[in-house]
Amino acid sequence: MSALPAKPGLRHSVSESNGNNHQLSATAQRERLVSNVIRQEGRSLRSETDCKTTWDESDTCRRLRDRAWDVARWKEELETCAQKVDEEMEALTLSKEQTEHALAATAVPLEVGSECLTLRDGRRGYELAADPVDEELKREVELIERMQQVLQQHVDKAFEHLWYGNVLQEARHQLTADLQNKMDALDIDMSCLSLTIKSPQISLKTNPTRVPSSTPQEWVQFSQYNVARAQEAMQVSQLMREDLSLTRTQLQNELNAQRRATEFALRKRTHHEEQARDELEWQIGNTEDEMAEMERDIHGLDADLQGKMASLKLAHTRLENRTNRPGMDLCRDEVQHGLVNEVHQLEATIVALKQKLSEAQHSMQKMKRHHSHMLQDLSGKQEALSLEQRSMNTRSRLAPPTCSEKAPVLLVPLTNSSGRSNLQLLAQ
Q1: pLDDT of residue 166
Q2: Terminus of the chain with fewer CB atoms < 10 Å: N or C?
Q3: What is the pTM of this model?
Q4: Is the pLDDT of residue 5 over 80?
Q5: Separation of alpha carbons 276 and 384, rounded Å
Q6: Distance CA 177, CA 166 (A)
């Protein structure tokens, strides 16, 4: 029988086989130990990370709620401040409109004052005097012109503060923008607070840990600055409204006082002119009566003068005829002496009558001229009184100005992305 052939390859000894078995067992035991440690550490890590994640999520939710409360608080403060700014803008607009109405109301008094001055310039003669009425009317016109200038300056100042001065309008714009940002931020934070690990909107983002542009301190300071600026603008507006109201009241009181002074002077002047007219009419009436008496006396003097001339002619004729007596009969008898005395007496009487008649006629002419002058003056006084009455009627158009009712202001809502807002802002 032949021998079996030997198999090629290295053969290990029993000790090597046992050592290998021992090594395998030791390695398995060591790997199990390492695995056990890793498993325990994994379980501990899972437990620790689960607690940490749960706590972090809870802390984040708390921080979100706190942040949302801060944003909501500032949102309410901004809303309140914006509402006050709107109310102040509306109040200042109303005050400006009242001032504009007061300014427009000065047009009629100015027109009336100027018309009264023009009417009174139509007086004639001595009635065209620089009396107290002229002074009061000119003072009234100057006051109205100054009043118009002051009111226009206040209207321009209020208009500039409202719109073109970028004071209230800019403050309102900053509040509106800040408030809109607060609304959007509050919506985002509330949306983040509502997210969970089961929300379908969650996903991994690119570089989500980038640092925001502002700090909480800067965030608070920004809103504080906007509120403080709006409050300062409102304080300026309140002072401006008080100034507008005070100016309107003072100027209106001055105008009313001047109006009463002018009307008093006009009534007083009218009364004096009526007295002067009545006195002149009485003088004219008495003068006319005296002229009638003088006319009768002139006729009487002229008739007496004619009668004395006839008597003088008679005496002259008698004397002349008696010169024709013949011889010794042409003597200076008592008749001669009587006739001569009569002639002298008649001549003296005629001279006296002629002088008195001349004086009467001269006085009559003077009275006629003065009567004509008084009639002209009476006509001027009547015309002046007519002008004064027209001035009084013209001034009856004056009436104290009344403030119109407050005009409605158009409002538009300012809403956030979800439509949740109760803020009303003035429409631009």
Answers
A1: 62
A2: N
A3: 0.66
A4: no
A5: 11
A6: 15
For residues 382-398, average pLDDT: 87
DSSP-assigned letter for residue 327: G
CA torsion through residues 141, 145, 146, 147, sign: positive
Alpha carbon distance, N-terminus to C-terminus of the chain: 123
Which residues lie closer than 8 Å to 136 by C-beta, 6 or more apart? 258, 261, 262, 265, 266
Quote the DSSP letter at residue 346. Answer: H
Residue at 399: amino acid letter: A
Backbone angles phi, psi at 9, to 5 degrees: 115, 165
Helices (H) and strands (E) in the chain, counts: 6, 2
Distance CA 396, CA 151 (A): 24
Which among 144, 25, 133, 69 is positioned nearest to 398, based on CA atoms?
A: 144
What CA–CA distance (Å, rounded) separates 235 from 237? 5
Q: What is the Cα–Cα distance from 272 to 201, expressed in whole angstroms?
A: 98
Q: Distance (Å, rounded) from C-alpha 303 to C-alpha 294?
A: 14
* DSSP for residue 2: P
Phi-psi region of 419 (alpha: psi -120 to 50; beta: other; left: phi over 0): left
Beta bridge pairs of residue 412: 425
CB atoms within 10 A of CB 97: 16
Tens-digit pLDDT profile for residues 206-257: 888 887 778 889 999 999 999 999 999 899 889 989 999 999 999 999 999 9
Give the tens place of pLDDT for each residue, 82-97: 999 999 888 988 998 9
Three-class SS state of 336: helix
- CA pair distance 370, 291, nearest whole angstrom: 11
Q: Check pLDDT > 60 for residue 3.
A: no
Is residue 151 a contact partner of residue 244, using CB atoms and an 8 Å limit? no
E strand or H helix at 182, and its extent?
helix 168-194
Using CA atoms, how far residue 270 sits from 131, 263, 266, 277, 392, in Å, is 11, 10, 6, 10, 10
121: which DSSP letter? T
For 102, the 3-state DSSP assignment is helix
CA pair distance 364, 369, nearest whole angstrom:
9
